[in-house]
Write a structure and sequence with these properties.
Helix content of chain B: under 10%
Number of strands of chain B: 12
Helix content of chain A: under 10%
Order of helices and strands of chain A: EEEEEEEEEEE
Distance between the termini of chain B: 41 Å
Oligomer: heterodimer
Number of helices of chain B: 0
Number of strands of chain A: 11
Structural class of chain A: mainly beta
Structural class of chain B: mainly beta
Shape of chain A: globular
Amino acid sequence: GAVVSQHPSWVICKSGTSVKIECRSLDFQATTMFWYRQFPKQSLMLMATSNEGSKATYEQGVEKDKFLINHASLTLSTLTVTSAHPEDSSFYICSARDWDRGAHEAFFGQGTRLTVV
Amino acid sequence: AQSVAQPEDQVNVAEGNPLTVKCTYSVSGNPYLFWYVQYPNRGLQFLLKYITGDNLVKGSYGFEAEFNKSQTSFHLKKPSALVSDSALYFCAVRETDSWGKLQFGAGTQVVVTP
């Protein structure tokens, strides 16, 4: 299946700093990517939909100024957690579908474990 | 609106025994249904999907699932569980006219004991 790569796998940052997470589609073009947040032993919560060349669409309750999304190319979307606080510590996962191939299933990155200290 | 229910937080099974993970869904139109598995600190791995056609779909690692429209269910099954199947399993649904947003169930932790 299609490959989605996420980087970094884990990151520790100090409160007040910003952290950027990258999501790449390695063998297909992804005009749309999705960003999820997952708390321990819980399901995935969709944060936003990243659209190449346009603004992201955020789910209700997600602060767009805190979670900046940039989808600058057909293979790369980034999520920047700005002014991070301990409550932002979580597991962040991206996903994408290979629309050109007509694939129905989404493929997921490896996830990024963010710890804010 | 679409929703998914996984009624069991955890399923325990002995190695070699059949494994079933339950999933029911609710959508206003026709559903696309998916099963994913997640190992600790990893992303989700795609197991199988139902789009159309045969109600019994076969996927990766010996897993299969049966789509039951009347019961709005899509239970995941494996005839003989392995210890390595121990993981967190998610059922997900997407409406056919939805352009990509998946609704996930809460997840079911599968524990396979030797």
